[in-house]
Amino acid sequence: MITLLEARNIGKRFGGLHALTEVSLTIHKGEVYGLIGPNGAGKTTFFNVLTGSYTPDGGEFVFNGSELPSGKPHKIVGRGIARTFQNIRLFRDLTALENVMAGHHIRTKAGVWGVLTQNRFTREEERLTTQRANELLDYVGIGHFAEVVSKNLSYGDQRRLEIARALATEPQLLALDEPAAGMNATETGQLKLLIEQIRRDGITVMLIEHDVKLVMGLCDRVAVLDFGKKIAEDIPTVVQKDEAVIAAYLGGGKHAD
Amino acid sequence: MNELVSAVPWLGKRNPMAARWLIIIIALVAPLIAWQFGRSWVRILDFALLYMMLALGLNLVVGFAGLLDLGYIAFYAVGAYAFAFLASPHFDVHMPFWIVLPLAAGFAALAGIMLGFPVLRLRGDYLAIVTLGFGEIVRIFLLNLNYPINITNGPQGINMIDPINLFGWDLSRNLQITENFSINSLFLYYYFFLLCVAGSILFVQRLQISRIGRAWAAMRDDELAAKAIGINTRNMKLLAFSLGATFGGVAGALFGAFQGFVSPESFSLMESIAVLTMVVFGGMGNIAGAIVGAFVLALLPEILRDVAVPMQQTLFGTVILDPEVLRMLLLSLAMILMMLLRPSGLIPARARYAHAENMKREGAQ
């Protein structure tokens, strides 16, 4: 198995709060990797540190064999890590298509001069961007809403659009922050199919999720965070029976005393 | 142009071609009509065109990139003074127009970047306050830099600025066609400025429908998400500030040359607010809005001045309200009515950020 991402002793503090303490984990190429844990365990903080929204207080990420720059989101996206947000963050006044086209920004090059002169390179790039964005909308199943302003889309479709926008950055690792939050059973089922399709297409997926059924059915391996520490990392069926994990979710155990 | 076309009431949607020609004809004929009311009206139209350029530039910063700039007139000032320094008897430098214009634009762009750097992390109210301060700093510098070394000539301003000279064709002189027929210089300026505005519209439109325009829109709608999809928000903000400033600089240079005189009082905070009002009044973030807003608000006070005084004299026998007072009153009233009736501006069109022809999907519909 090829290692895609290795987190080494990642630490992050907010004042006196240790949001992440020495978190180390390894994600292999082509797998779906789940990150679970109770509320406030540091899952989203981990995402934010990974994608450069926060700078870590300690540790480093090694992606594809070289270290990731910390605190530079656009460079990290350039290296091939894309993310979605727990509370959907679309560009609300742009159409679905324009949202996805914006996602393609980092893979395009036209500068001011090219844009003003509309030279052949810029026109061709623009055409390809549009075409690719349309393909991605079809891929996540909302192609017929291409012209709809994104704030008017339904909740489930907004989730899909956010995934399409993240895919437009041509990532190797797609980090999804609670993609099934607020979805009903049907929508969750469709989401599961979509994530499986993404994996089949060669993109590694990292997933924060509370829906246990989804995590167990989808993930190859799961890591559990609790109070900013990794307390377990294994295949889902093993993690499910882990005593520390059960204690973390149900209370009791070492934190109760 | 397309946005402007579809903003034409009734005709715009039904017959875009006709609407397009209508706009072109109005733009070409407007000064001839204005001439019937007196030459000052043509002059007012000339100024309206300069305001359109300003509104287009500010719209780039405020409407597209979402960076509220209350000191935009500073770039207008930089352009105007750059022109005045390089083409007037003040320093006794008389560089040709085609060299001064890009230089003025360049200086303004530089000023834009200078403003951009310190405010990169600011948003909303904080950004507005700092930009407001920047505008005032520039004006106060211009006002006071006549001592110990006289650079700006202080409150007296700089006089006798060279007129616009296009390859030996002096726009400030009436064009003599035949012995008893000549075209007034005001018309020459009008058509030259019209050309500049048309060019600006083209540029702004191209920027809007491009990866740059989309990056700006993304930044405006959600900066965190924009970063998360790989947009370098620092560079994009600086680009917005400098490109917006460039428009201001060019308009300023044209203003200096057209008027032949610049002084700090032309660049007060009220002017910044006036341009911002034009953008908001017309409809933030769309080109047609900026154009229409600038046109209406540049003309309104002049019409008022012309109408209000005689009307009050016939009605009351004397002038009760000074037109200047009345102007602020009516402007505020107009803004309040707009907020109530059309909160997203006179022309609340949604700006496009993708080419329509690229979008036609094969097999769809």
UniProtKB/TrEMBL annotation, chain A:
One of its GO terms (cellular component) is plasma membrane. SUPFAM superfamilies: P-loop containing nucleoside triphosphate hydrolases (SSF52540). The keyword Transmembrane helix does not apply. Keywords: ATP-binding, Cell membrane, Membrane, Nucleotide-binding, Transport. The keyword Metal-binding does not apply. Coiled coil: none annotated. GO terms for biological process: D-alanine transmembrane transport; L-alanine transport; L-isoleucine import across plasma membrane; L-valine import across plasma membrane. PROSITE patterns: ABC_TRANSPORTER_1 (PS00211), ABC_TRANSPORTER_2 (PS50893). It comes from the Bacteria. InterPro entries: AAA+_ATPase, ABC_AA/LPS_Transport, ABC_transporter-like_ATP-bd, ABC_transporter-like_CS, BCA_ABC_TP_C, P-loop_NTPase. One of its GO terms (molecular function) is L-isoleucine transmembrane transporter activity. Residues 5-252 form the ABC transporter domain. This is ABC transporter. It comes from Thauera terpenica 58Eu.
TrEMBL record, chain B:
InterPro entries: ABC_transp_permease, LivM-like. It comes from the Bacteria. GO terms for cellular component: plasma membrane. One of its GO terms (molecular function) is ATP binding. The chain crosses the membrane at residues 21-38, 44-65, 72-91, 97-119, 126-145, 187-204, 238-261, 273-304. Keywords: ATP-binding, Cell membrane, Membrane, Nucleotide-binding, Transmembrane, Transmembrane helix. Pfam families: BPD_transp_2. Its main location: membrane. It is a multi-pass membrane protein. It is found in: Cell membrane. PANTHER family: HIGH-AFFINITY BRANCHED-CHAIN AMINO ACID TRANSPORT PROTEIN BRAE (PTHR30482:SF10), HIGH-AFFINITY BRANCHED-CHAIN AMINO ACID TRANSPORT SYSTEM PERMEASE (PTHR30482). This is ABC transporter ATP-binding protein.
